[in-house]
From TrEMBL:
Pfam families listed in its UniProt record: AAA_31
Gene source species: Caballeronia concitans
Gene3D superfamilies: P-loop containing nucleotide triphosphate hydrolases
Protein name (database record): Exopolysaccharide biosynthesis protein
Entry keyword Lipid metabolism: no
Single Gene Ontology MF annotation: ATP binding
Amino acid sequence: MLMPLEEFRFGRGQRSALAATRRRSNVMVVTGATVGVGKTYVAANLAGLNARAGKRVLLIDADLRHGRVASLFGLSPGAGLAHVLSGRTDIKAALRSVDVRGLHVMTAGGELADPSELLSNGRLSEMLRQLMPHYDVIFIDTPAILAFADAITVAALGGSTILIAPPGPQSDDELEDAVNVLQRTGANVAGVIYNAPPRRAGDDRRRAYPTGYAARRRRSPGAF
């Protein structure tokens, strides 16, 4: 079950971030300054909230190193973003329906040691160009900004970027560094969501993201 969005803690940019779909581009990148901040969880909840509000929504897992969208939704392995960008499958085959009406998901499609070249080969930009007319908003989950260059590559293609962070002074310093990096590349930083999900014993903040709901796998949507 999706966590009610009201339970998230928001930063000053909340209105800008959640209204970013009114901008020229309907692509919204969701990332964090560092790993383990629950960015995938927040991206999934934002996607679900928009879908339940009647919008056509796509959630793309562009974390090709440690993608978690598939496991978060309880989806079995299948064609995903890595397959599309490498030319091994077409876009439609990588789109999957879940138990939230109006929401489609494109999983990472596997974990790669160095996906930077794959993300910057031009196919991601072309894929987004084809997908944008079919959705009201597209959320893209990426790796951490300060950990890998992948997120910077993706953020440059989005209309807006939302940063996810835990509250605290150390987080503020990391956020400032992340914002500076993004702004140097021309990315539009729409705002910050301060997320403090409850931790359980044995949680690995460097690898795992919080999970809390599942969805049944269905056949690929035919709307695209």
